[in-house]
Amino acid sequence: MERSSDYGAFMEKFVLKPSSSSHELPLNGLTFAVKDIFDVNGFVTGFGNPDWARTHSAATSTAPAVLAILRGGATCVGKTVMDEMAYSLDGDNKHYGTPTNPCAPDRVPGGSSSGSAVAVGAKLVDFSLGTDTGGSVRVPASYCSILGFRPSHDAVSTAGVIPMAQSFDTVGWFARDPVILNRVGRILLQLPDVDLVRPRQIFIAEDCFQLSSIPNNRVSQVLVKSVEKLFGGDVVKHLILGDYVENKVPNKRMYLLDLIGFIFYLKRRYEFKNNHGEWVTTVKPDLGPGISERVWEAIQTTGESIDICYSVKAEIIATLTTLLEVSIPLGMYNDVPVAISLLAKHGSDGFLLNVVETLYDTLQEQIAISE
Which Gene3D superfamilies match (predicted)? Predict the structure, then answer.
C-alpha cells in the first residue's frame, strides 16, 4: 500500500464507471470512494478486519447508495480504510494502518469512516461515502477539516451496508465543496433542486460553546456574524441548552440527558450483539486495543439490561435518532482543525444542505477576519 501517495486512505483501488456518461448528470466528472462497509459487487466487504474479510465471500450486488451515486454520473475509485467493525471514533486500525490526517499529520483522522474522510481531505477524490451511527462521519469530518453530513435516520437506504446498530445507523458523506455536498445529498435523498428557505431561527447553545477552550470569536461568533450578515440579526437566538431541557422536563435535566446517553450506548451494544455476536464468539477475531474491549462488552450485554429502553417514553428515545447534523470546517487554530456543527429536525435534510451551501463562503470570510 502506497501510504505516501494515498495517505493510507485506501483498502483497495478499482474503477467503477458511471452507468451513463451524460454531461448533464449532476455528478458528471466527479470521483468518489466508499467506506469498506458498503457492498460492491465482486469485492469482499471487509468491515475493517482481516478475520471478517477471510470468513466472508465477495458481495454479489452493490449497495443501493453506491448505485445511486454511479447513476448520478460519478466514478468510484476504491474502498477506504475504516475502524474495525465501525466500533471507534479514533480512526486507527492495527491491521491496515491509521490513515494520515492531511491537515494535522500528527493527529488521528477520526473514525470510524477514517479513510473516506482522509481521501476527501487529501484531495484524492471529490467526495466519499461513510456511515454514521454515533459520530463516524461528523467526527472525522471535523478532524480532517472537511464537510461531513449525517442525514435523517432512514432517509438513505442502508441496504448492502454491514449494520452496526440499526436504530442509529445512517449513510453519510464527505466533501470539501458545499455545492458538491448538496448535489450528492440530493442524489442520495432523492430530493429535487429547490431554492433556499430562509431559516426562521438559529439557536446558539451557549453552554456547549463554553466547554471549548478555543476563543469564542473563532467559533460561535464566526457563525453568529455570518448568519446575521445573510439572514438578519433576528434569526439568531441564544439559549442555555441545559435550561431548555430542564424547562421541557422540570427538575430532571441531568437525569434526562444522562438517560438519553445511557440508552444510546445500551441499544447500540445490544443491536451490535444481535448483528455480530455469533460471528465474534465463533471466530474470536484479532481486534485492536480499545475496540476489543468494546466489542466484548457488547457481546456480554444481557436481554434484561435492554428492558429499560422499552420502559422509557417513545418521544425521549426518538431524540436519539431524529436529528440530522452537518460538520462545517472553520479553519485551524494553533495548528489544530476547528469545526462547528449545525443540527436540524428530522426530514429537513434538503433545507440544511441549502443553508450550508449559502453560509459557507461567508463563514470563510469571517474566519479570515477573526484570524
Answer: Amidase signature (AS) domain
